[in-house]
Amino acid sequence: MDLFKVCVGKFRRAKKSKSCMDWVTLSTSLTESGVSSYSPLIMASLQASLVIPVLRSATLQTWDIFVSVTPLNDLMPFIAQISAAIVTMWPQLTVDQIHVSISILKHILQYGEKLGHYAFDIADLSGLSFSHVPPPDFLPVRTGLRELMHALAPLRTSLTWNEKLKNLISRINSESEIVIRKSLKEFSNLLKKNPEKMKMLMAGNTFHPLVGNVVKALIGVTARCNDTSDEIKNIAFECLGTVGAVDPDRCEISDEKSKMVLASNFSDHNKSINFALHL
């Protein structure tokens, strides 16, 4: 608890001073101490500050260091959250912030095949826009992104369509709202590109187990997110419409307790604290 209090104090000072050094001290002190149980607290704190413009640069720089010094086994569970946050904030990033974001993703992708199935948790980078990048910086940014996608491509070629669907279902069931939103968009694109694949899962007298998992995940996310998450609900309902009517007698939908989801995307300070404590 003493370490926890010290870290919380450093986090508060960092928010007041906008100093990257306090962020660095916070992340490296926890990592070097081997207290991996505090990683969720660090992630929640960093993501909470990422949405604040005046703290964004310092937050990304600290995130870059945190990712570079955190052991892979401790980093893996947060890969989806990190990449989804970067992709979501991309249109609002300055050129310098974009370069730091690319560096963060490079630190993750340097592990290559060691990432295993976590490589499929990395958010889709193909739809990132360059419209807000000034012409002099366009080429370096595009080159950096191409290098990322070139490194990621061979790590994600082994999954079948069903395995991709299973991975997206897992991410939709995430506790992170930012991961849920990004995963729903990817799921929607997957359904639109290959509608016949979903129909094949629903053929016969009994549906494929994935059909029940899809319905459960989509309905569950609308129930877990509050009324402020209209975008999440709209995408989820759109996906349900694409899937089509499902006969409950022909698929199995298990009943489990739902997880906590922070639908305010860390913009509410009190809810961010409660979510960090929940982790």
Structure characterization notes:
The protein contains 14 helices and no strands. With 279 residues, it is mostly helical. The chain is globular and about 55 Å long. The two termini are 15 Å apart. The model has no long low-confidence stretch (mean pLDDT 78). This is UME domain-containing protein. Residues 29-90 form the UME domain.
Largest sheet: none
Helix/strand/pairing category: mainly alpha
Instruction: Report the total helices.
Output: 14
Q: Summarize the amount of helix as a percent range.
A: 55-70%
Give the count of structural domains. 2
Quantity of strands, as a count: 0
Alpha-carbon distance between the two ends: 15 Å
In round numbers, the mean pLDDT is 78
Shape: globular
Element pattern in H and E: HHHHHHHHHHHHHH
What share of the residues does DSSP label as strand, in percent? under 5%
Low-confidence stretches: none
Gyration radius, to the nearest Å? 20 Å
Pfam families: UME (PF08064)
GO molecular function, one term: protein serine/threonine kinase activity
Domain UME: 29-90
Protein name: UME domain-containing protein
